[in-house]
Amino acid sequence: MKVSELLKTNDYKWFFIIRLILGYVFLVAGLQKFIFPETMGPGRFEEMGYNSPEFTAYFVGFFEVLCALLILLGLFTRFAAVPLIIIMLVAIFTTKVPDLMDGDFWRFAHRVRLDLSMLLTALFVLLSGSDRFSLDYKWFGEGSKDQI
Q: Model-level pTM?
């Protein structure tokens, strides 16, 4: 598949709602890593046992903010979803799966629900592209309707 095909999107009317949800949640999460460093940024990453918590927290926060803004604008939407998918996979495997490995399924199920929702929403955006209200649509045009 050509890069130009990845930039094309669809004409489905209400897809922008998915973009808004995904962009909002990651924008808030990313900004909080900078605004509240002790509870949401390096301090939290240190509590979770990450090596280099300051670098890791700000690195993740930077990509959350950048990709969230791109998704909110609908610009390079599919490409912006990829780092968010990686962030969510790492978060699930490093902070939630240990509960499951300890045999506490219900604690895992409770704690993973937002992460899983955001992972699947980002995956949906990656697979579906953006919508008629995006810059991708304006600049690169409509793709085929059989993307979904």
A: 0.89
